[in-house]
Amino acid sequence: MDYIEQSFRFKVYSSVDELSLQDKEMMFMAIQQLEYAYAPYSKFHVGAAVRLENGVLCPGSNQENASYPLCMCGERVALYNAAANHPNVAPQAIAITIRNQKMPIQKPVSPCGACRQVISEYENIYQSPIRILLKSDVPEVIEISSVKDILPLGFDGSFL
Ligand code: THU
């Protein structure tokens, strides 16, 4: 028996002001998307924006349903929006932000397991990492350089 240890590093920016112009623009689109979230049940708004390799930004927000399992996360709405409208163009980064109408959230909220799996699929298609930028109600922004860092021992098409 042996142990294999895996760790990862991520960046912490003190605020959006520290981001590059392109990342700032992407994060502002995600923040804007909070207004378009349809979240009457959870009151938890998620805004996202995907930047493609050609520079195009694709927005998304969570969309809920009275039949709860049909709720769709903001990250996936943005990624599927990108894939549907810009086929064969690699996503390079995704900005994700949240607003919980019930209480402020003081730490970054990272994508759920299902969204991690979907981000991973798009990384695999284009063999290129997708940077993930996270922001909640505190000024700090976190950047994860690839979803593989937060989805260790992941499942992919190579097993099929
Ligand atoms: N949600 C997202 O949009 N992204 C996540 O990564 C986690 C959860 C949404 C789904 C649902 O509309 C609400 O947040 C509460 O779970």
Offer a concise description of the structure.
By secondary structure, this protein is of the alpha+beta class.
Describe this structure in words.
The chain has 160 residues and is of the alpha+beta class. The protein has one domain: Cytidine Deaminase, domain 2 (3-Layer(aba) Sandwich). 24% of the residues lie in helices and 22% in strands. It contains 3 helices and 6 strands, in the order βαββαβαββ. Strands 1-6-5-4-2-3 form a 6-stranded mixed beta sheet, with helices on both faces. Strand 5 and strand 6 form a beta hairpin. It is globular and about 45 Å long. It starts with 10 loop residues before the first strand and ends in a 16-residue tail after the last strand. The model has no long low-confidence stretch (mean pLDDT 97). It binds tetrahydrodeoxyuridine. Tetrahydrodeoxyuridine (THU) binds next to strand 2 and helix 2.
Total number of helices: 3
CATH architecture grouping: 3-Layer(aba) Sandwich
Structural class: alpha+beta
Structurally, how many domains make up the residues? Answer: 1
Unreliable segments of 5+ consecutive residues: none
Average pLDDT taken over every residue: 97
The biggest beta sheet reads: 6 strands, mixed
Quick one: overall form?
globular
N- to C-terminal separation?
A: 28 Å
Which small-molecule ligands are present, each listed once? Answer: tetrahydrodeoxyuridine
**Cross-sheet strand order for the largest sheet:** 1-6-5-4-2-3
Describe the structure using short key phrases:
160 residues; alpha+beta; Cytidine Deaminase, domain 2; 6-stranded mixed sheet; 22% strand; binds tetrahydrodeoxyuridine
